[in-house]
Amino acid sequence: MALDKIGIAKRIAQEVQDGFYVNLGIGIPTLVANYVRDDIEVEFQSENGVLGMGPFPFDGEEDADIINAGKQTITTLPGASFFDSAMSFAMIRGKHVDLTILGAMEVAENGDIANWKIPGKMVKGMGGAMDLVASAENIIVAMMHTNKHGDSKILKRCSLPLTGVGCVTKVVTNLAVLEVKDHQFHLIERAPGVSVQEIQEATEATLIVKGEIPEMTL
Amino acid sequence: MINKKVNNVEEALVGVQSEMTFMLGGFGLCGIPENAISELVKLNVREITCISNNAGVDNFGLGLLLQNKQVKKMISSYVGENDEFERQMLSGELEVELTPQGTLAEKCRAAQAGFPAFYTPAGYGTEVAEGKETREFDGKMYVLEAAYKADFAFIKAWKGDAAGNLIFKGTSRNFNPNMCGAATITVAEVEEMVAVGVLDPDNVHVPGIFVQRIFQGEGYEKRIEQRTVRQKK
């Protein structure tokens, strides 16, 4: 069965390693924080200027001056720090953040990603996404395999305006885990009960399938 | 001590005119210069260019200037959450320049620090890099981005003193420190003006040299855009 958003978040949480500084995008990536193993030390960075982000505050304890990049009220954990936007992006651009998890509208087999603009529709802007994808060496995209019309979001080439070029290393969808290597998508894992054929049918890009493809363990 | 203190927002905004370029601190509605924005609405300066990460919401923050049709051009990284903005942009009334968030911060910081431009990898290969010089360093491609030029920077800090020293609270710091000294005149409004000597020099976030005018702000609303809470178990 295809995963739901929580399933995708759970699978991505397995990629988070002890000692990682992690930047989470808005949407499914935000959920990842809930499923990281509790026997490892991880710090979450939010690009508006906080490292060591904690859970949402208890009702009545929210502070207008303490928010995340999604403008949600948050708390901080012991050891947290606040900083200005230039320093925040020094962490990102300077490759001090170990893992970036973000959503996408399209990903291509050359590692290109599009997630900020649909021409002719309302443009909300790229926020910090272009800075994140241009610098991070470890980028995982969290998204559904197809859009709401059933069209594949895993493409030979992106059709939407790009956010970054040749930068995506891994994609976790409701159907599969894919690795981007040598300008090709490699099928690494299947969602429980989803066949290789089903994944291939939902993928516009060429999919490299080598040997037996294991199911994800969640 | 060089005194930067002015009595109120009216004095702080002396010299503000139509067609000027302003930097405004804040991320979403967090850390925005509420008093300066209200005064800009009152002064009704027109055809202004605003450099600010976001464009406020419909009835608060920079949304107030948009509603009043005072803005000619917005330079931002993210402009969702604002219907009036969308209407003006789609109708062509409002010019919009979208800039990656880290590049926006650094274009402010470059202006503050005296760099005319800098290379960043952000936006390479995208429409953001169109028409801009690109260059390879150590096998990676970068885009040349120029420092901003602005007439006024409007800053909101938590605490400050007459010397212009500033301290920020939480994530309301955001772009505020990067915009200090990045415009011809930097105007800081503070929630709490403290006596000179009270702020520990070791804990000052922005030294007063970057600030030309500072005043005690009033009536902060500090609206929350996304109130997100969990329940006690």
TrEMBL record, chain A:
The keyword Nucleotide-binding does not apply. Signal peptide: none annotated. Keywords: Transferase. Pfam families: CoA_trans. The keyword Heme does not apply. PROSITE patterns: COA_TRANSF_2 (PS01274). InterPro entries: 3-oxoacid_CoA-transf_B, CoA_trans_fam_I, CoA_transf_AS, NagB/RpiA_transferase-like. SMART domains: CoA_trans. GO terms for molecular function: CoA-transferase activity. Gene3D superfamilies: Glutaconate Coenzyme A-transferase. NCBIfam families: pcaJ_scoB_fam. Belongs to the 3-oxoacid CoA-transferase subunit B family. This is Succinyl-CoA transferase, beta subunit. It comes from Polaribacter irgensii 23-P. The lineage of its organism: Bacteria, Pseudomonadati, Bacteroidota, Flavobacteriia, Flavobacteriales.
Automatic annotation (TrEMBL), chain B:
Gene3D superfamilies: Glutaconate Coenzyme A-transferase. Keywords: Transferase. It comes from Polaribacter irgensii 23-P. One of its GO terms (molecular function) is CoA-transferase activity. SMART domains: CoA_trans. InterPro entries: 3-oxoacid_CoA-transf_A, CoA_trans_fam_I, NagB/RpiA_transferase-like. This is Acetate CoA-transferase, subunit A.
